[in-house]
Amino acid sequence: MTLHMLEAAKPATELKSEALQVLLERGLINQCTDLEGLDSRLASGAVTVYAGFDATAASLHVGHLMPLMTLRWLQKLGHRPIAVLGGGTTQVGDPSFRNEARPLLEQRQIDANLAGIRHSVERLLDMRGADGALLVDNAEWLTEFKFLEFLRDYGSQFTVNRMMTFESVKSRLDSQMPLTVLEFCYMMLQAVDFLELARRHGCELQVGGSDQWGNIVNGIELGRKGDGRKLFGLTVPLLTTASGSKMGKTAAGAVWLHPEHLSPFGFWQFWRNTADADVGKFLRLFTELPVNEVERLSALQGADLNEAKKILATQVTGIVHGADQARAALEKGEALFAGTAELTEPTHRLDAARLADGLGLLELLVGIGFADSNGEARRLVEGGGVRLNGFVVDDARRRISSGDLQANDRLTVAVGKRKKALVGFG
């Protein structure tokens, strides 16, 4: 059965399992392969569930919080999560809804990226005890297969006809861009992941982004054909703002979860700058506040809504970076707003290479979360509300070069009184 986002916005009292009731209430369900079957299974006892994270970057970003929060809630409700690091699948690269192949990474880079991802996962999930969350790398089994052995054992379970029907493949072919055999095999590898996890750890449920629907369905079908297993799939919604823009990555970079790539205060500030229309949605998705408290905060108006934004920022930062960092970020934010403190450490970091041809001011404002779009950034600049290194900039065509940087290759950016950032380039 398929459950769409429109339905996910409404709590369903007819569900038997607390787990699905909570996920639905929090807005964390987009589609489910068999809603009634999964509901019955979750209601009958503990279920092992996994989500996978390929090592394509040195850190996860806020888009990854959707499956991570789903795993976190399921663990709180008595189920066991597995976070699968894609040490094997990263060597191939997921082609889902991409117009070109991902660049192939060297093993050294993959290993470094895996370490960064591990850091964030261990923050969000409870790894303690015999029943704690598991963290495994799919390279454990994928790199052990011999080519002919893999084709014989698994290739016969897939048909090209079926694989061609998945939207992730059709979108690439419709764009008339090449799809390599290497990429085409990715969905087979992810399907094998599900089967291996079922065999090794009794895993019955996979959680993924909405772009993973076809890959998840393949894994469920392989489990049925290969072992006669009953497996389930659940996707989370695409993370978007009220304006319709995709969250997670911006024109100037991603909103990273790892503190080396975005400071805890920069992370806090990103959430503090949430658009009014998104506050309620993000409180529901990314905090563990009771729903009645979320509804109370969501109903606030005007200046009172700023308090809700502080609560949102502090709650999410506490989950991702810990309570101490969240409190420190809140205190720094309050001091900056009061004008009693200045930033001393970069809140955001960007590659210095972006300055070679000049980094657009509008692009920078969107990238650090001070505007939702180039149009909004333009209005801020032309209205005289933007300052670079303390000086008002009113030219929306302004480009930033290395000559604009202060000591230690830093740039201060401010919008009005509330939004201040120290951007480091290196």
TrEMBL record:
One of its GO terms (biological process) is tyrosyl-tRNA aminoacylation. It is found in: Cytoplasm. Residues 127-225 form the Plant heme peroxidase family profile domain. Catalyzes the attachment of tyrosine to tRNA(Tyr) in a two-step reaction: tyrosine is first activated by ATP to form Tyr-AMP and then transferred to the acceptor end of tRNA(Tyr). L-tyrosine binds at residues 50, 186, 190. Keywords: Aminoacyl-tRNA synthetase, ATP-binding, Cytoplasm, Ligase, Nucleotide-binding, Protein biosynthesis, RNA-binding. Its main location: cytoplasm. This is Tyrosine--tRNA ligase. Homodimer. One of its GO terms (molecular function) is ATP binding. InterPro entries: aa-tRNA-synth_Ic (IPR002305), Haem_peroxidase (IPR002016), Rossmann-like_a/b/a_fold (IPR014729), S4_RNA-bd (IPR002942), S4_RNA-bd_sf (IPR036986), Tyr-tRNA-ligase (IPR002307), Tyr-tRNA-ligase_bac-type (IPR024088), Tyr-tRNA-ligase_bac_1 (IPR024107). It comes from Roseibium aquae. A motif ('KMSKS' region) lies at residues 246-250. GO terms for cellular component: cytosol. Signal peptide: none annotated. Coiled coil: none annotated. CDD domains: S4 (cd00165), TyrRS_core (cd00805). Belongs to the class-I aminoacyl-tRNA synthetase family. TyrS type 1 subfamily. It is an enzyme of class 6 (ligase). It comes from the Bacteria. Its EC number is 6.1.1.1. It catalyses: tRNA(Tyr) + L-tyrosine + ATP = L-tyrosyl-tRNA(Tyr) + AMP + diphosphate + H(+). A motif ('HIGH' region) lies at residues 55-64.
